[in-house]
Amino acid sequence: HDFVADSELLALLEQHAQDQQQATEAIVQASKLAKSTDNITCQVVRIDALPEADKSEYYEQLTRLPFPPDLNAGHIIDGYKILRELNATSRSQVYLAEDTLSSSSRKVVLKTPSVNYEDDPNYLELFLHEEWVAKRLDSPHLIKVCNEDRQRTFLYTVVEYIEGQTLKQWMADNPRPGIAQMRATIDQIARGLRAMHRMEMFHQDLKPDNILIDNNNTLKIIDFGSTRIAGLAEIKTPVEQAHILGTANYSAPEYFRGEQGTNRSDIFSLGVIAYEMLTGKLPYGEISSERAAKKRYIYTSAREHNPMIPEWIDAALEKVLQPHPQKRYALLSEFITDLTKPNQRLLQKSTQPLLERNPVAFWQVVALIELIALVTLMVIDVL
User: Fold this and answer.
1) Quick check: pTM over 0.85?
2) What pLDDT is recorded for position 157?
3) Rounded distance, CA 25 to CA 28, Å?
4) Would you tell me which of 126, 131, 190, 230 could form a disulfide with 200, CB atoms 3.0–4.6 Å apart?
């Protein structure tokens, strides 16, 4: 460890894939050559196949803990004293609670599953998935799980309590903020997303409702229920899962084409938020999930809604909101950089003649002009 690089370990394992003893000896030798100071021990285990998961066994694991009873103010569950209900939907209940077992009696948020889904293994898997993701993330811009090792007697999750408001609420109170404020907001969200992307996790439901602003103006991304984990997403489970989509207005178009999400999908959603902050509008209007697959995504310049937006900011927004992933920014840092200073290449592209930027549109315009001229001549002849 720390003496042999991962790439070298992988190469040695591949070189001696058929002989585990030779593989261990080669790894030990590599450690010695790297002047390892550890007591070198190496064990190689080869897994040829994994057994098919039994559906009843898997379901039993998911339902090992019972659903909590109806909770009201004053009720205590595993040391968490319910203070009040924060939110309730058909899928879950969210409570503000006091951790009576902590020295500071801190406030936390307790989320319980709805009894409507007590017999739905897909729902249960997604409910547990959200906590599993949160445990593996560490960033000041991502919501944190609390006391994940505490013994539980019921099925629920506990996360830190953020005293503040959602970004959606803030945007309603602060329409069309300045460029600097928008950039600072997008930068904080990008820091949270970057921590996820480094773990090969894609949020897939980024929207103003899923971003909290605390009293120190720190933004935190919440709700990992739709998060996709590269690699794990391809592992089969006995529970059938539908393709997970976020809120249609903020979701990248590729989701509606049945494609897998990537980091560029999250970057698209971030671009929608930036556009909405500056204009008060959605770049492609209101989108319904049912019609999204057939929708034509034609970018409307942000300057049409807010002429005060500089052209170079609009150029960055147009790039991040490209319908096709490969035409968008590949990295969050590239988008943030182009929101910080003008990207001359984008500006040059936006000022290119229509024939160079979009030949099809150019000839469509030419054909339309010729048609109008022809109709005009016909009318004159008739008269």
Assistant:
1) no
2) 93
3) 5
4) 230
